[in-house]
Amino acid sequence: MVIKIIMVCVFFGIMVGVGLYCRKHATNVDGFVLGGRAVGPWLTAFAYGTSYFSAVVFVGYAGQFGWKYGIAATWAGIGNALIGSLLAWAVLGRRTRVMTQHLGSATMPEFFEKRFGSKALKIAASVVIFIFLIPYTASLYNGLSRLFGMAFNIDYSICVIAMAVLTCIYVVAGGYMATAINDFIQGIIMIGGIVAVIAVVLSNQGGFMGALNGLAAVEDASVSNQNGVFASFFGPDPLNLLGVVILTSLGTWGLPQMVQKFYAIKNEKAITKGMIISTVFAAIVAGGCYFLGGFGRLFSDKIDIAANGYDSVIPTMLSGLPDILIAVVVILVLSASMSTLSSLVLASSSTLTLDFLKGNIIKKMDEKKQLIIMRALIVVFIAISVVIALVQYKSSVTFIAQLMGVSWGALAGAFLAPFLYGLYWKKATRASVWCSFIFASVLMIANVLWQPYFPTILQSPINAGAFAMLAGLVIVPVVSLFTRKPEDTLVEYAFSCYDKKVEVTQSTSLGK
Predict the structure, then answer these.
(1) Cβ 371 vs Cβ 410: under 8 Å
(2) Alpha-carbon distance 496 to 407, whole Å?
(3) Exposure string (b/e) for 328-365, b if CB count within 10 Å is 16 or more?
(4) In the CATH hierarchy, which top-level class contains the domain 2-499?
(5) pLDDT score of 142
(6) Per-residue pLDDT tens for 272-296?
(7) Helical spans, DSSP H, in 310-357
(8) What pLDDT score was predicted for residue 512?
(9) CB atoms near residue 29 (< 10 Å)
(10) Contact assessment for residue 105 and residue 30, using Cβ atoms and an 8 Å cutoff
(11) Long-range contacts made by residues 9-15, C-beta under 8 angstroms, separation at least 24?
(12) Helix (H, G, I), strand (E, B) or coil at 220
C-alpha cells in the first residue's frame, strides 16, 4: 500500500509541476489553445494517442468486446492504429495545419464558419460539441471505480474529485503545452504498463500458446455453436465487430479534440514523424488493450457479467497481479483518463469561448478576457463532469450511460464528412454541412430514446454511430450536387493556401 500511494503521489506531483512550468506558454489565446502552433512530433503524436485512449477503452471497451469477440477484438486495436492514426495523419494532418492557419481558425466550429461562410454553422457546431462532449467527459471516470476499489479500498468519490482537481490545475495553468508534455509522460507510462500487464497475465495462463489453447476450449452456446470461436481470426460476430472497428477508428477523423492536435503541428517533418510515432503508439496501447481483453473468458469462473457488467472483466483479470504491478496499472488508467480529460475540457472551453460567447453573447472580448473565461470554463466543465459521474455512480442512472455511448457517433457523424470535404473538395456546400450536422445528431439522440424501433443491426449505439459517419460521407456530396453552390471568392481564398510556393530541402524533394 505504501508503494502504491508513493507512486500515485509522485505521478500527481509531476503533472502539477509541468502545468506550473508551462505557464509561460499560455499567456495568449494562441499559446493557451494551440501551444503557439509550435509543438514537435513526439509531443503532438503522444497528445493525439493519449487523447484517443482512456479508461473507457482500457476497462470498458477492452473488457466488453474482448468478452464478446475473444481474441478477434484485437482487430479494433489494429483499426485504431491503421485507420484512426496512420490514415488520419496522412489524410488530415498537413491539410488541416495549412488551411486552419490560413483561415485563422483555432477550433473546429471556427473552421466551419470561415470555410463555408456561415456564423450560424459555427454556433451550431459549438452547441453539438457542448452537448456531446460533457457526458463523454464524465464517462472517463467510470473505469476508475473498480480499479481504485481493488487497489486502495477507498471511496470512488475521493478518487474522482482528486483526479479532477489535479487535472484542472495543470490545464488551467499551462494550457495546451502543459497538456501535451503531460500527455507524453502519461503515454510512456501507458506503453510500459500495458506491455508489462500483458506479459504477466499471459505468463500466469501458461504463456501465449497456453492462453490461446485455453481460450479455444471455451464454449458459449448463447454466442456460437462453433468450437474454438473465441480464439478464431474473426470471432463469433464479425459484422458487429466491424461496427466497433469503424466507430473507434474512423471516429477520430471527426472528433474536435483529436483534429485540433493537427492545428498545433510545428512543421512538415513533425507531420511525418508524428504519423509514425502515433501509429506505433496506437498499435501498442489499443492493440494491447483489446488483445488483453480477448482473454477475459479465461477468468469466467471469477466474473459474473449479469451481476457486475463488462466493466468487471479487466479488473478481475488484474486482481491477482503483484502489488507493484497493480500500482502501475492504476497509474496507467489514471494517465489514460487524465490525458483524455484534459484534452476534452480544453476543446470544450475554447469552443464555447471563441465560437459561442465571443461576438454573440459577449460583444467585446479582448485576449485577456478570453483567457480568463476559458480558464473559468475549464473549471466549470470539470465540475459538471464530476457531478454527472457521481450521480451515475450513486444512483445508477442508465440514461446518462447511454448518452455517453452515443457521443462519439454524434460528434464524428456530424463533423467528419464536412471537415474532410471542406479540406479537399471545393464544391461542398453550406446546406450539405447542415444536413450532416442534423442527421447525425438526430440519429444518435433517437437511438437513445427510441432504440427498440431501430432495425436490429442499428439498435447498438456502436453500429448506429458507425452508420452516421459513413452516411455523412454520402450525404455531403449528394446534397452538394442539388444545393446552392458556394461563393467562388470564398472557396478560392480558402484553397489558395495550398498553392503557396515554399522552399524545401533536397531530403524532402529532389527538385528539377
Answers:
(1) no
(2) 34
(3) bbbbbbbbbbbbbbbbbbbbbbbbbbbbbbbeeeeeeb
(4) mainly alpha
(5) 64
(6) 889 999 999 999 999 999 999 899 8
(7) 313-318, 323-351
(8) 54
(9) 20
(10) no
(11) 11/189, 11/331, 11/334, 11/335, 12/162, 12/166, 14/182, 14/185, 15/166, 15/167, 15/170, 15/182, 15/185, 15/338
(12) strand
Which candidate, 215, 166, 153, places its Cα nearest to that of 4?
153
Place of cell 479537399: 424
Whether the predicted pLDDT of 148 surpasses 70: no
pLDDT digits (tens, 9 = 90+) for 26-82: 777 777 877 766 777 888 888 888 888 877 787 778 888 888 898 999 999 999 999
| DSSP string covering 31-95 | HHHHGGG-B-HHHHHHHHHHHH--HIIIIIIHHHHHHHHGGGGHHHHHHHHIIIIIIHIIIIIHH
Cα–Cα dist 476/439, whole Å? 11
Please give the backbone phi and psi of residue 39, each rounded to the nearest 5 degrees, phi first.
Answer: -90, 130
pLDDT band at residue 396 using 50, 70 and 90 as cut-offs: low
DSSP state of 213: H
Collapsed DSSP state (helix, strand, coil) of residue 223: coil
Q: Under a CB-based contact definition with an 8 Å cutoff, are residues 362 and 379 in contact? A: no
Q: How far is CA 251 from its chain centroid?
A: 8
* pLDDT tens track for 161-207: 888 888 888 888 888 888 888 888 888 988 888 898 888 888 888 88
Measured distance CA(75)–CA(69) in Å, rounded: 10
